[in-house]
Amino acid sequence: MDSILVRGNGPLSGQVPIAGAKNACLTLMPATLLSEEPLTLTNAPRLSDIKTMTELLQSLGAEISTLQDGKVIAMSSHSMDNHIADYEIVRKMRASNLVLGPMLARLGKAVVSLPGGCAIGARPMDLHIEGMEALGAVVELRDGYLHANAPIGGLKGGVYNMRFASVGATENFVMAASLAKGTSILKNAAREPEIVDLVSCLKKMGAQIEGEGTSEITIQGVDRLGSATHEVVTDRIELGTYMLAPVIAGGEVECLGGRLSLVKAFSEKLDAAGVDVSETERGLLVRRRGDRVKAVDVVTQPFPGFPTDLQAQMMAALTTAAGVSVLEEKIFENRFMHAPELMRMGAQIDVHGGTATVTGVETLKGAPVMATDLRASVSLILAALAAEGETLVKRVYHLDRGYERVEDKLSQIGAHIERVQE
Ligand code: UD1
């Protein structure tokens, strides 16, 4: 099993290219099921989660090939010969549930295993189910699978007022409603950039959608969708992660492809902590103002709030801040698994329910630590960048789900990091 070995060192400098967004790609790929014609994605990230989605879509009958070393994904779902998303694939990744809406819209039926994914909370499917029901579907849970059936004649336009702005449930609703008969309205929709990216692609395929990026999305169903080529939006979570490297280790790093609009709430917190973030022609330039950042309080929220997917990395940065920071996790109930590992490196953190209080220490010390989910694993690598001595981050298979060549990208800016096999 692979581990990552980091030897803490001084300031970092240089440029890091930021890939296309994993979470955008994972919803753009199932959109191929909505059309008989080809869908091509460019700027795709090379990640194991993308391979899992490829495997899932192929199992449903999609033809998929990759070009340019995986950066281009060419898909065609001319004929679909299966409507069952099997547990053996779905359990690897929760985003597999994003085939539910497209399959139901295209075939009038879908059987989708309840998903697995990161162990960061219960993550139920009730909002996805209610969304499909609002479009006229009947959904039942049997043997660990959701069995969804559209009414005779296909899905019908409907109104759904979501209790919580779920990203995935918004994506499933919008995709399904694109082929439903009549007009659908989603109220309290999620507003994440990945949803805006999905809608932009669906529009290229011929969908009629308005209001993406706001909390009310209106979809006028069409009879069929056509072909499109679409460039995947920049990964704001990878962007935020690399922005934290010079915050933790010092120096100056330019994140290529980054834009402030993707990470506004996050950049505002960095500014309050004593970090300069400026937009350049090619991306975002990040530099810590003093020797040490200042403590700041963070509350995770749906977009445009501070992203839960950057909470672990931000906590890593705040472990060595001057003062006491309070981090509140409002999206997932069990997302502080990185805290005990950071404490093994000398961090002072008190966790009570959804709140973590971090008392900054002067410096962390290297230690063997264990990655427990995707963002937790990268937070440990970030913390190790400036820790004294060596840190061995074990079980990095989570990392490969969401970060392209993390050790290469960090080496490029001067970090002492390598992948080792144990
Ligand atoms: C997406 C992202 C994930 C990110 C999350 C929140 C992808 C592939 N993944 O996940 O990286 O952390 O958004 O920004 O895009 N919930 C319910 N019922 C449901 C659905 C969700 O109660 O039917 C709850 C979840 O348990 C969780 C919260 O809503 O507490 C947020 O989940 P959601 O926005 O759906 O996240 P995902 O789409 O799974």
Description:
- With 422 residues, the chain is of the alpha/beta class.
- It has 2 domains: 2-16 and 235-421, Enolpyruvate transferase domain (UDP-n-acetylglucosamine1-carboxyvinyl-transferase, Chain); 24-231, UDP-n-acetylglucosamine1-carboxyvinyl-transferase, Chain (Alpha-beta prism), CATH 3.65.10.
- It is built from 14 helices and 24 strands.
- The chain has helices at residues 22-28, 48-59, 87-90, 100-107, 126-134, 167-178, 193-204, 236-249, 264-273, 311-318, 338-344, 374-384, 397-402, 406-412, and strands spanning 2-7, 12-17, 39-42, 63-67, 72-76, 84-85, 109-113, 138-142, 145-149, 159-161, 183-187, 208-210, 216-220, 228-231, 251-256, 275-279, 283-288, 298-299, 324-328, 348-352, 355-359, 368-370, 390-394, 416-421.
- The strands form 6 sheets. It has a 4-stranded mixed β-sheet with strand order 22-23-1-24, covered by helices on one side.
- It is elongated, with a radius of gyration of 21 Å.
- The protein starts with a strand and ends with a strand.
- 52% of the residues are buried.
- The structure holds uridine-diphosphate-N-acetylglucosamine.
- Residues 23, 26, 94-95, 121-128, 164, 166-169, 194, 308-309, 331-332 line the site of uridine-diphosphate-N-acetylglucosamine.
End-to-end Cα distance, whole Å, is: 6 Å
Uncertain stretches? none
Helix content: 25-40%
> How many β-strands, per DSSP?
24
**Total of DSSP H or I helical runs spanning 4+ residues:** 14
CATH hierarchy: architecture of the largest domain? Alpha-beta prism
Strand order of the biggest β-sheet? 22-23-1-24
Report the CATH superfamily of the largest domain.
Enolpyruvate transferase domain
CATH topology of the largest domain: UDP-n-acetylglucosamine1-carboxyvinyl-transferase, Chain
Secondary-structure content class: alpha/beta
